[in-house]
Amino acid sequence: MKNLKNYNIKNKKILFRADLNVPVVDGLIKDTARIKAIQSSIEILISNKNKIFLMAHFGRPKGEILDQYSLNFILPSLKEILNLDKVYFLENFDQASVEKTVNEMQAGNLCLIENIRFLKEEENIDLNFAKKISSLFDVYVNDAFSASHRNHTSITGFPKFLPAVAGNHMINEIDNINSFLDNAKKPNMAIVGGSKISTKIQLLNNLIEQFSVVAIGGAMANTFLLANNYNVGKSLVEKELIQEANNIQLKAKKSNCELILPTDVLCGKNIHDTNPVHRNIHDMSSDEMILDIGDASTQLINNKIINSKMVLWNGPVGAFEFKPYDKATNAIANVIKINAKKLKINILAGGGDTVSAIKNTNTEDGFTYISNAGGVFGFHRWDEET
Length: 386
Ligand code: 3PG
Ligand code: MG
Known about the structure:
Number of helices: 14
Radius of gyration: 22 Å
Strand content: 15-25%
Bound molecules: 3-phosphoglyceric acid, magnesium ion
Oligomer: single chain
């Protein structure tokens, strides 16, 4: 694979794909790992006097220009982390604007392009657009491992027209995850959380085939509970995926994979309710929502962790950005910190929110490797779509 160590790029115009989809709560960046990830590649490219155009997405604006998804907010952090006095900002990603900015920039300058998902051409792969834009650049660099499972123009389109080079972070992620997976040992366990099954169907299907235990938490567990006819009150659910949840449960049975769903939960009237009620899942009340897994469920997961040889964790098991619904996620992170090295358990964690939760709890020590990638784990090929 062409990369920055075996392929020299000097005095060129570079189209650089980063994953700047950082976790943000109330307008504040909760974790900067995804910005730091590109630092090494960007430093090399700057010192080699390239003009770099940084292309990234934020959220899922689906081809519409929506203020709340502008990437403008990230400029101060970008400057600070990359130690730059100035970063250009390109609002319109079209030929005239790119050419104008290229002329204004000096060798070694950086320009951030506005959210690539504001363009319809991004998700409906548009090769004419990719070709036209590519003609303005010399090289395409992909350092966005955690977004590379998307079959979008910024990932799979530009490399069709430009020499494509992997960034340092991309190489680092691939090496670490491969070495983790090459050392597969059973019994192994996967913990999957987060809000939606829809984005993790493929991940769950793959994990069930490969892991002895798969524990499901987060809002995603609610759809499974609903599929099993529990009253989940006002909890976040994806009703259209009940059948999918049933299929996954069936597949788990057939594959001899123990699927763990919460048996008790923490509920609130809404996400800002700071007086949660602890309930058995048989006793849910219709005006409440499930916001975290309960103590018994957490305990069960923690016991499984310490009896595993290998653990993969993707997605918080509760609404961890809102206290006290970070309790179970924090407890899991702490059990890993205390036991993983001692018991020689290999632990791989990944995903923007998961990384943020691990940092919040200062539990990084316990993990064999922490990846910026979440969704990518579920893919055999990076260009498959969820
Ligand atoms: C992520 O946050 O997992 C990546 O940036 C990909 O984002 P997406 O799931 O919205 O494609
Ligand atoms: Mg995601």
